[in-house]
């Protein structure tokens, strides 16, 4: 998620970042790590697909070691390649596609994982497990819409398609010309589909977890329950078999119980809207068929949750009305409260994503934007984490509890909608805040007594001291030095020139044998990879044998 969000920052501020890299290179000590990073970034941003006869330098032919050795301020370039107007940087085009993918698919899916369960309230960020099974199908459907060149029809990918105008046509370049970028999206989606099926579908559609759908959308939950009831009816029973024999049914006759068929209707899934707030509509038959495609109902029936609450699930699966576990008005005369409680306590307790922990990580970034120094940032983060957030949640719970009691004494039409209460207000806000501060101070005093004065003083010094933090004076001096350095005459080194692209095997490229040579081969092969070798546990020896056995085509002159 962090990488994809950074894509847009880089593409929108490409020129600014380029000049920052130049400025940092000018300011950093030559050959320092920061200097080397700046050179590497400039090399990456300078890389473009140009016709072979106009190649700006010979960096495409460098080995990885030669490229690393070029990070030296003495290794200056004789000439500097100036990109022509209209040329699209290779890395820039790749980022534009990833940006489009994030906006069209990934951001919405990740945003959903960070949400709270509407039944559990604001403090349950990431606890949306009861909705995760149906979400799996929503993700599949969104991904399917992008596959088979469907992404080309989406507005999010228009910047990428426009950028291809600045890339040479196929066959004009040896590596990453337009044909590379025409093939790349399909390969990315193919790989993403593989990972999605391996890590997402295999989890949420597994026989151990599929029954979590009981706590999700009412229509899908009822279909699942009916599907399981249908399976129970198909389990062989000696009395039923005897009755069938008396009735003249043979072994080759049709089954006594027909297979369950999911309803062929379209429904709207609540709580799955994207950032555009549009409703998510799915076909029940297609959704349930996808989710249960590999399911083993015998295994599901044996799960502790299903066995323990089978009578409630069975009741849900046999009634004609759609039962919503979170709307008692749909229950009729049957009490589904035990099943509802089981969903909350045994299913919702599992987090889809540890967003509650992530919130505190994000807090550090938000506090830093207030432009206060490091010591005050630390203090504010502690106060917000240990006092304000706790107070806000407890105050809201107290207000909601009070409203519930008041609603019990009022007719239904005059009751206050609890779902619209977002925070404590007025005197209730002040009252609960004072109580929270008093409790916090008591806890601080208790902690101080338990720690002892020496340890307490050590912690206090660490939080409040500027010794380990960058002070405002140091920052001012650093800025002045930076301003002086960027005014120096610019020098060009080979490390910042475009190096080219190593095309992966998935994109019909090759494997970098030099990595195998350096790390996993014998000393003789490290010096001369082309030699014949029969040493045991030598990577290059195995590589030579594999190349010969499979008749793999190699780049001309690779042994040299």
Features:
560 residues, mainly alpha, two-stranded antiparallel ribbon, 23 helices, 2 strands
Summarize the model shown.
This protein is mostly helical and 560 residues long.
How would you characterize the overall build of this protein?
- This protein is 55% helix and 1% strand.
- With 560 residues, it is mostly helical.
- It has a two-stranded antiparallel sheet with strand order 1-2.
- Helix 2 packs antiparallel against helix 3 and helix 2 crosses helix 20.
- It is globular and about 85 Å long.
- About 1% of the residues have low confidence.
What strand order characterises the main sheet? 1-2
Strand content: under 5%
Structural class: mainly alpha
Largest sheet: 2 strands, antiparallel
Summarize the topology:
Blueprint (H helix, E strand, L loop, with lengths): L1 H11 L1 H14 L5 H14 L17 H6 L20 H24 L18 H15 L11 H6 L14 H27 L13 H17 L3 H9 L19 E4 L10 E4 H8 L5 H5 L2 H5 L1 H9 L18 H11 L7 H14 L5 H35 L17 H26 L1 H12 L7 H14 L27 H8 L2 H5 L11 H12 L10
Antiparallel strand pairs: 1-2
Helix pairs in contact: 1-5, 2-3, 2-20, 6-8, 9-14, 16-17, 17-18
